[in-house]
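Justification of computing resources. Each target in the renewal requires a structure prediction run like the one illustrated here; the chain below, 265 residues long, is used simply to show the kind of job we budget for.
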Amino acid sequence: MGLALREESSFDLGSVFLTLITGLAKMILVVACSYGIFSSYRFITQSPRFNINEINLVGHQRLSNEELSPWIGSIIGKNIFQLELDGISKRLVEHPWIQSASARRVFPQGIYVEIKERTPFAKLQMEQIYAIDNYGILLGTDLRGANKLPTITGIKTKNPKIGINVADEEIIRSLKMMYSLNQLSIFEKNPIDNVHISSRYRITFSTHTQDVKVHMRPEIAQESFKNLVLALGAIEKNEKDFSYIDLSFENRVVVKHRGEVKREF
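Resulting structure tokens:
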């Protein structure tokens, strides 16, 4: 009996020793891996080999690299791994002319930034003439490439802020109706390119030469346009130029030709 007890005790002691050795080996491995990870992290975040020395900007046409530089921020010389790419994109889209922006790393020392600029869609006359894009964002007073765009007048907003959306219901409805009118044959050679919003109840469209005007009430705009299409044949039969078309009345189209009294259709 005594011999059996000694053998069992010896066996348990060996197992404990083996467990301790195994645990110690695992601990050493964890420490070694942690140190390796720490050393690698310190190397890639502190080595000048990964400091940014080049920024590639693409997609911009209106804005120059010099204009964009302050919005990107001072990133030359910074570590490429520690740079927050989302921060670059967020700063850039705060620029009124930038619709979207994305940035990515180009190892070992480059940053690639892709920009999508806003496109001027119309001009808005307030205390100054502003360009707006197709979303109604107020872009500013730089009218390069916007001189031939339609002009919206009659808006009474004071001290507008660049970058805000100014496309209220009247503006959107007016631009849509202007587009529809310009599809008609009578405006093919002399398109409408000016919209004057007198009030929410009256809009006046003017052709490029300012010699023909179209008056309309926004609340019956669709019905009035249909009436104009139906009366188009009769209007075009008169060889004399007309000076205005009044679509402000329900179920009536009033046309006045130069030197004549107004006619109704």
